Amino acid sequence: MAEIVIRNLRKEFGNFTAVQSSSFTIEDGEFFMLLGPSGCGKTTTLRMIAGLELPTSGEIYIGGEEVGQMPASKRDIAFVFQMFALYPHMNVRRNISYPLASQGMPKAQRREKVAEVARILGIEGILDRPVSGLSGGDRQRVALGRAIVREPKCFLMDEPLGALDAEFRERMAEELRALHDRMGATTVYVTHDQLEAMQMGDKIVVMNHGVVEQFGAPQDIYDWPASMFVAEFIGSPPMNFLRFGGTVETGASRVDLGGSSLEVPMVRQGASGDLVFGVRPEHVRLVDGADYRGEIVATEYLGTTQIVTLATGHGELKARVASDQPARVGETVGLSFNGQTVTLFDAASGRALPTALNEGVLANG
Amino acid sequence: MAEVILSGVTKRFGATTAVDDMSMTIADGAFTVLLGPTGAGKTTTLRLIAGLEQPDGGDIRIAGRSVTGETPAERNVAMVFQQYSLYPHMTVRENLSFPLRSPMLRTPAPEIARKVGEVAEVLRIAHKLDNKATALSGGEMQRVSIGRALVRNPAIYLMDEPLSSLDAKLRSDLRVELKRIQASLGATMLYVTHDQIEAMTMATEVGVLDEGRLVQTGSPREIYENPVSLYVAGRLGLPRINALPAGLFPGAPSGAATIGLRPEHIGHGEGQSSRVVRVEHLGDQTRLHLELEGHDIVTLTDVHTTLAPGDTVAIAPRNPLYFDAAGTRIQAARI
Hints:
The structure holds 2 protein chains of 2 kinds. Chain A is an alpha+beta fold. Chain A is built from 9 helices and 20 strands. Chain A has helices at about 40-50, 90-105, 105-120, 135-150, 165-185, 195-200, 220-225, 230-235, 360-365; strands at about 5-15, 15-25, 30-35, 55-60, 65, 75-80, 155-160, 185-190, 205-210, 210-215, 240-250, 255, 260-265, 270-280, 285, 295-300, 305-310, 315-320, 330-335, 345. In chain A, the strands form 5 sheets. Chain A has a 6-stranded mixed β-sheet, sandwiched between helices. Chain A has a 5-stranded antiparallel β-sheet with strand order 15-19-16-17-18, with no helix packed on it. The mean pLDDT of chain A is about 90. Chain B is of the alpha+beta class. In chain B, strand 7 (about 155-160), helix 6 (about 170-185) and strand 8 (about 190-195) form a beta-alpha-beta unit. The longest helix of chain B has 18 residues, at about 170-185. The radius of gyration of chain B is 24 Å and the shape is globular. The chains are: A alpha+beta, B alpha+beta.
């Protein structure tokens, strides 16, 4: 198992730059997520780590060795694709042992290895079945087995759960994560699903248009997004943006929104012009007395919580509140925000303003 | 708009009973959602009401009259399918007007123009009326296909997972939109889905289906808080309700085989000690995966918890639900 270091990695396809100068470190044993919308460069990055694409410039270190220009076969990695490709004419056992056979491992040792992998994956019962009759989940487990059996330096996975339906996907996600916790293998996982990334990852890289927007622990990225893109891409419903114009001085701990003075974390670097007050739905409360007001446009019941959509003087806002709190469409209510969770953005650049609370996270990348 | 009543409706396909003795009333102006997994009989129910399938038994009444002998056109229902099918060679305006041009309706041209304008306004596609249908995004196409149902004045709108092919963001926007439209028109709506979020957020009434049988109806809150069976309890709520042997915690009533604990119905700090297996930070909530005597339990904790795998947490049920061996709720046992 190994640490993976990506330094100034860049990939151009003709005039198109798929990945621009990315740098991040995947620590040994980490479950690492490459997250972003389609076309953001996450799969290209993964393919460069695998050796399926060669970088235009920059370096890739796997376990201390620079492998950027090395062929895939020399890198000792295992790749699991979205479409699990199994050999249809072989049974489960032969599918799993195939990579070992091609390495020339003796038969007895192969049997032992396959048995061990089958036990980890819970597929001992189907080893002698043909793969053609298997369920989607079992096929995915066999594909994983074939990747695990070689004990590579790291696993690279390209949306391995993308083709599964929602309920089953949730289960496989848990299974994969539990498998990782048992084996401790460095894993790089590509997904466009923010919930999957939050749920499974130790660390997340959020990419957009070939650029690394932010890199860090899931909760840090959720709490302290570095850009409006990250704030909107992560979280459901996403972070609310209340747009306002004006000046925020360095050292300020309140901002003025249409005459209401709202608390924010102490600003380390002021800005002026078009600004954005960013607050997550669960940090908005409906309070009679508050002087910032909004009109309830819709409510959505979700069991213990409900999502209340409000129209405010600075745009639409969603609040996640307890479902037993009365909220009637058409009513105008006061809104209070947990100031210690607010992120301010500069609308033109889309970047977060550094504050006393987010500067540690932003310094991470 | 009108009331729709199913009484004892049954539909078989060979040896499979797709809809089994179903009785339900969709009240005038209600937004009723049928919720169930694939194969539960949701779509068949819609098709029976629309007249695209004939029932093997039972009766369907729309606005007081039995419609089982009527053709789909005579029933005056509007159906929206999962896959939007627009006329690709027509503009949005022509697509929306098409149902009104039916020889059966004979709508005068100014009336058509007024209706189409109104619906386009409601669906926020007025600025796209003269675009070709093929020049629209997926979300816009689905709105046009919903609009094509809305221009008519049917007895009921039947919708078959109309949002399932859209991406998450658009889906959440259209959920709010559809509910707003339904409320502002006072429309009667029967909407089928396997997505519990859609059912909870939009419905005035939810019907839960299990293998062709309607097992419970009620408001989303009633179904969530007061499920009649373990099956129903598992259909609503994310993360899913924990179903554990009743004897795992003290206080189970006699006859209880299973205790159902929603993740938010587990108190921390006292009770049985369980081991933390995994801490899952989802941003707005943090899930704790616990292990208690070999059973997996999922619960929620403080977003910025310092708990880590291997730690011990004492847990005790709060407002548990009890079920008998057949999965039926033991009602009297609320503590």
